[in-house]
Amino acid sequence: MARIFKRGKYWWVDYRLPDGRRVRRSTGFTDRKMAELMLKDIELQIARKTLRLPVDISIEAFWERYLEYARLHKTKNSWKTDFYVFREFLEFLNKKNVKKLTRLTPEILEKYKLHLLEKGNKKITVNKKLRTIKAIISKAVEWELLPENPCKKVKLFKQPEGRLRFLTKEEINQLLEVIDREDVYLYTVILLNTGLRRAEFVNLKWEDVDLKTGILRVVNRENFTTKNYRNRTIPLSPKTVNSFKRLKEINPEKPCSLSQDQLSRLISHYAKKAGFHDVTCHTLRHTFASHLVMNGVDLVTVKKLMGHLDLNTTLIYAKVTEEHKLKAVSSIDLTE
To answer: Residue 246 and which of 62, 146, 236, 271 are 20 to 30 A apart at CA?
Structure first.
């Protein structure tokens, strides 16, 4: 006899398959009526012989399979993020004796949210980790190891809308004035005028920079892939071309002689020296895009220059445009 029952704050379904096997699993719902509707749907699928049964695989086995996939299809930084986030999640699950993939429930994930907060994680960090876990588990659904993603029913913490940090022209000059290392000065000028990601700049080769035509190419290679696996070209201003020419004299082997971490540390060091404690290497990328939109460049073009996969990512700069327009309007005084 199929039934629903409550465990904690969630309703569960309890039913038998035609071959006699008994199945108990969480519906992910706290509402009884929704759980009853889910049970009726399951009974209908059993009658029609269309019910997709979850495979009884361990979380560790799924994780090993996912890692093979991630190493093959994701960038090094991306799969490393997956590795550290999910490994932390596995440690929590092992302490809770949750071994099977089918035992992952919204209730378990809600407890993990609380666990992360108690460990001192900020809400924004918890949200990032949960998004990563959700993306990983979505592969289990895609591979038909789970009927649905339990993360879908877990709400993220609400976060106040933050201000997009970019440098004004005055702040750019203030930053450049304190940089006393010529190579770092040139790196900063180039990053400000190209919007390159840190990894893209560090992996740039001289063959990617055409100083005659003033075109920079961001390309995928065997040992380096862009974030979205897409090549793109970026036109260079005369000042940027001159910066590259001087940089070629300093660094003949490749444009940037630093590692990603070294570059980040140096940019942050000089930013603090200039009085900016909220400026990072990535801020230079935001600065490039923000000044493009403030100068009337359309968002589709900005999307291409930034190497965004989705226009929604570029839309964060639309607010910069609106704020810029409002500031311009507020400065107009048509009365005598």
So the answer is: 271
